[in-house]
Specification:
About 25% of the residues lie in helices and about 30% in strands. A hairpin with a 2-residue loop joins β1 and β2.
């Protein structure tokens, strides 16, 4: 004889609590998704703010804005133009801004030579669902490191090569150098024909068009290239530099060559590039020459050893 199982009389009563538990689980996971998704967006915005702060601090350190005193002040000024979760970023969000050395993937605070800036930005985000479970806020912290790397190549602005011995006194606050009449008795600079033994009249073509030159003739010069240096003085070329000063064309990028080995003449290897601002030109009298001010720092070895001023770029390395 067949027997049939009989349903429990209270089965419906058991299902209702289970449905309630399942509903709470669904609500919990939904809340988790909402808050996690929102925090992911906030994290992206905090990372962007850290990138901005590190880059602004590095630019102030290596190429200072005269209207801002410190890298931190510059970073705060730039951050104030950004928002995180529709909230203006303030100085309180910039937890850390420090300079140091970045090498082999490691940043070391205050280690010489200084070549990088690290920024850490912190933001307190309001939770939506988890606020009801005793977690009203979440703290999001991100860091970024901006490092300065020297140029490996470039097209020099004017046909002068400077010796690395000129750059030994330069640091992140700036430096002033004097070239005497190029080349001078101290052998710290020379006119250059780049890859040819050019005469003074031929070198004239390597100046800006505003002062009678043809910039299209300036070759691409790379670190490691040998360039020819002109062992002789030229007042007409100094007058062309003076023309640039009068025209407001004062920022110049020059190849750097080693001072060691006697007079800066014949061929010398390019070891880096230096960026200067022309301050004054003397075309007559017993002290003819050019006064330059260094305006961007490599803080590395490419300028011939030690801290020096040079052209390059700032990039995010972390």
């Amino acid at each position: 004889m067949k027997r049939f199982a009989q349903p429990l009389s209270n089965e419906r009563g058991v299902a209702i609590p289970l449905m309630g538990v399942a509903f709470l689980v669904i609500i919990g996971f939904t809340g988790l998704g909402v808050d996690i998704g929102r925090l992911a967006v906030v994290a992206d915005e905090v990372q962007n703010a850290a990138d901005v702060a590190a880059t602004a601090g590095a630019k102030q350190l290596f190429s200072p804005n005269p209207d801002t005193d410190t890298p931190r002040e510059q970073a705060v000024a730039v951050l104030s133009e950004n928002e995180i979760s529709n909230t203006k970023v303030g100085s309180g969000n910039l937890k850390t801004l420090e300079s140091g050395n970045y090498a082999d993937g490691v940043f070391t605070s205050n280690l010489e030579p200084i070549n990088a800036v690290r920024a850490e930005v912190e933001f307190t985000a309001d939770n939506i669902v988890f606020a009801g479970f005793g977690h009203p806020t979440s703290i999001v912290t991100k860091e970024a490191i901006a490092a300065f790397s020297p140029s490996g190549s470039g097209r020099p602005t004017i046909p002068i090569a400077v010796g690395d011995c000129l750059l030994t006194e330069c640091d992140s606050s700036g430096c002033n150098v004097s070239l005497g009449e190029v080349p001078n008795l101290n052998d710290n600079s020379a006119w250059t024909g780049y890859f040819s033994s050019a005469s003074a009249s031929q070198i004239q073509s390597f100046f800006p068009a505003e002062c009678g030159g043809d910039p299209s003739t300036v070759p691409l010069v790379e670190v490691g290239d040998d360039i020819n240096l002109l062992n002789g003085q030229s007042v007409p070329l100094l007058r062309t530099v003076d023309c640039m000063l009068d025209a407001g064309l004062t920022e110049v990028t020059l190849p750097v060559v080693p001072c060691k080995g006697g007079t800066l003449s014949q061929a010398r290897e390019v070891v880096g590039f230096a960026t200067f601002d022309i301050q004054a030109v003397r075309t007559s009298g017993g002290h003819k020459g050019i006064d330059l001010k260094g305006i961007a720092s490599t803080m590395g070895e490419s300028g011939g050893g030690g801290r020096d001023f040079g052209s390059g770029k700032i990039t995010m390395v972390r």
